[in-house]
Amino acid sequence: MHSRIYFDHSATTPLDPRVLTAMGPFLGGAFGNPSSLHQEGRLAREAIQTARAQVASLIGAAPEEIIFTGSGTEADNLALRGVLERWGPERGRHLVVSAVEHEAVLATADALAGAGRAELTVVGCDRSGRVDPAEVAAAIRPDTVLVSVMLANNEIGTVEDVASIAGAVRARNPRALVHTDAVQALGRLPLGLDALGVDLISLSAHKAYGPQGVGALVARHGVFPAAQLTGGGQERGRRSGTENVAGVAGFGVAADLADRRRETDVAGLVNLTGRLTNLLTAIPGVEPTGDRTRRLPGLCSFVVAGCRSDLLLAVLDELGVCASAGSACSSGAPVPSHVLAAMGFGELSGCALRLALGRSTTEADVDVAAARVERAVSRIRSAGSAAGSAAAAAAG
Ligand SMILES: Cc1ncc(COP(=O)(O)O)c(C=O)c1O
Asked: What domains are there in the chain, each with its CATH number?
C-alpha cells in the first residue's frame, strides 16, 4: 500500500480545523432559521452577518455587496444570467467571455446564446493561456452588457490581467459591466474589488479550506443582478432560500484566514511549485503549461506526451497520488481540455496533468509525487509501445 498524497487542492481543499469549529454550533444546537424573529433565529442571523463582514473585508467591499450562494457555479450563473436579465433590455444582449473560462461561465454563456437570450463573443488566448486586453476591447460593442474573464485559470494556473481588461472594456463602453471568476484565486492572490476594477466577483469557500456548497457573488452597489432564485427574499431579495448557516459561517472564517495567511501560504507554495515543475519537466515529453510568471501559486500543470489523462490519473491513483487533469468534468469521461485546445495544444489537449499543492504539502511530498509520476508515465508508455508492437505484428 502506498501512502497517499493529496495534490488536488484546486479541486477542493480540506476544511481548516478553525473553520470546522466555527461551523460546529450551527450543525448542532444552534439550528435556528435566520429569518425567524426569536432569539435562536437572531443567533443564526448574526452568524451570517459576521461572515458577510469577513468576506467583504477580504474583497474590500461593503457587506451589502456580498450575495451568498450555494457554490461558485451558482455565483457565475447569477452574474451572467442576473446581469443579462437586469440590464439586457436597456443596454443590450451582447456577452463577451474568454475561451479559457470555467464551464460554469462557458456553459452558461452558451446556454443563454443557444436560447436566443444573448449574443456571444468568445475571445481566444495565446499559447500560455493569456487573454489580451486589446482583443477583449476589440470585441466590445455598444450593446455589450457584460464581459466575463477569470482571474486565475483552474486548469493551467495562468493569472489574467483583469485590471487591464476591465480598463480596456470601460474605455470602449463605460456602460458594459465586468465580471471575474476568482474562485481559484481566493487565498492565493490579492482580491481587491477596486484594484481589480470589476463590478462582479465570484468566490467559492471550498477552494480555500472552507466548506463545499457555499459561494458568493460580490456585486458592486448599483449592479443589482436579477434574482435567479425567488421566494422568501433572503440575501436582500437577490437569492431566496433559507441560508446554509453553518456553511456561511465556515466561509467567513475561511475568508478571514485566507486574508491573514495568504503571504505565508504563498511563499511556501511558490518554492514547492518550482521544485515540482523542475522535477517533472526533467521527464522526457513532459511540458509545463500556462504562463511561467503570471501564475497561481501551488498549481503545477503539464501535458505528458503519450499519456492520456484518464490513464495517467488512474495509475497515479493506484500509486497513491490524487491528481487531476484540471477540468471540472463531473461525468468522469475523458474529455480533452477546452483550455489547452484554445491554447493550441491540439492532440496533447487530452494529455493534461494538474498537480495542485496546498498548505500542508511538504518537500518530501513533492519528491515522492514526482517519482511516482515518473513511474506512472513510463508504465503507460511501455504498455502503449507494447500494444503498438502487438498491433504492428498482427497487421504485418
Ligand atoms: C475557476 C472556477 N470557477 C468556478 C468553479 C465552480 O465552483 P464550485 O465548485 O463552488 O461550484 C470552479 C471549481 O472548480 C473553478 O475552478
From this structure: 5-13+262-389 (3.90.1150.10), 62-232 (3.40.640.10)
